[in-house]
Amino acid sequence: MKIEIPEQKKLVFEMTMPIRWGDMDAMGHVNNTLYFRYLEICRIDWMHAVGCEPNPQGEGPVIVNAFCNFYKQLEYPGDILVKMYVSDPGRTTFESWCTIERVDQPNIIYAAGGATTIWVDFPNQKAKTLPDSMRALVT
Question: What is the pLDDT of residues 45-57, one digit of tens each?
């Protein structure tokens, strides 16, 4: 299945990772919970790459919802390519989107998901305005 990412979403990061033997379940395909892990790994690696280091005594990003749509079963062995997009910056939030495809089958989307990220003042446990540096990355 081919999924089109609307133009207002901006590609910000790509990474490959292996499908591990232990990622499979009793049915012989990657367990659905692992897709969320793949999306998380991509999102966290992007945040590290852009210098977005959460500070528990300060502020940083928190995921307030996440979703994943499953289109094809991933199976071991193989490598996946996860592409991350961002969009829709609000006062305190932005959206992230990812697609997952096999490296050996480019442009065939196996799963697509996303998350809403809110910027938080951790000690006060309150939403905080997105910093200008983060807003520039997600606009």
Answer: 999 999 998 889 9
